[in-house]
Write a structure and sequence with these properties.
By secondary structure, the protein is of the alpha+beta class. 21% of the residues lie in helices and 38% in strands. A hairpin with a 2-residue loop joins strand 9 and strand 10. The two termini are 28 Å apart.
Length: 186
């Protein structure tokens, strides 16, 4: 199952999709953005979209609650020009509120490297969200209320490519993050 929320650059989808079908590299991110949470072996119990900002570029977080209880918050924070730390703080507050006492996976493209900001320590103190993926990357999975069996790691670029008509199409300009978590006892 999946939960997708549209973010920026989706207002001309018929036109940009037509261009992308002819030359995907020409259109790049202007084909439209979204945050997508994919779930296997689990049912989605609730889906919500939380709008972080509408301007200068629309940013929306996908909030997903799984039937077994854990919640997932997936976002793409603003670029450094638009204060990503403010987006991430606001998103973390909303995600924690959505999850309530349930376990939470909070992540996506946060546009901040842990080795350049104290925000990750702040999120751990305020919300119990811990374990950024790596000190020098912008894509992260932070967790609360889950045991980490395999820490978040970046998959190689080839894992986000699919074949279509003899071409390799890269599904995202961001690395796939892979991790294994378990519900904590108690």
């Amino acid at each position: 199952q999946g939960h997708r929320v549209l973010t920026a650059r989706n207002w001309l989808l018929p036109l940009t999709s037509a261009i992308a079908r002819r030359n995907p590299d020409l259109i790049a991110s202007w084909e439209g953005g979204s945050n997508l949470t994919l779930v296997r072996r689990e049912a989605i119990a609730e889906r919500r979209a939380f709008v972080l900002r509408r301007r200068p570029e629309r940013r929306v977080m996908a909030l997903t609650r799984l039937e077994s209880g854990p919640c997932v918050a997936n976002l793409h924070a603003s670029t450094t020009e638009h204060d990503p730390a403010a987006d991430v703080r606001r998103a973390a507050d909303a995600a924690v509120s959505f999850a309530g006492p349930r376990p939470l996976v909070f992540g996506g493209d946060l546009n901040l490297r842990p080795d350049t900001t104290g925000l990750y320590e702040e999120l751990a103190r305020r919300h119990g969200l811990a374990a950024p993926t790596a000190p020098d990357v912008i894509d992260h999975l932070l967790v609360r209320g889950l045991g980490v069996l395999e820490a978040p790691r970046r998959e190689p670029p080839a894992t986000r490519e699919v074949g279509a008509g003899g071409l390799a199409i890269r599904l995202s300009d961001h690395a796939i993050l892979d991790a294994t978590f378990e519900l904590e006892a108690g």
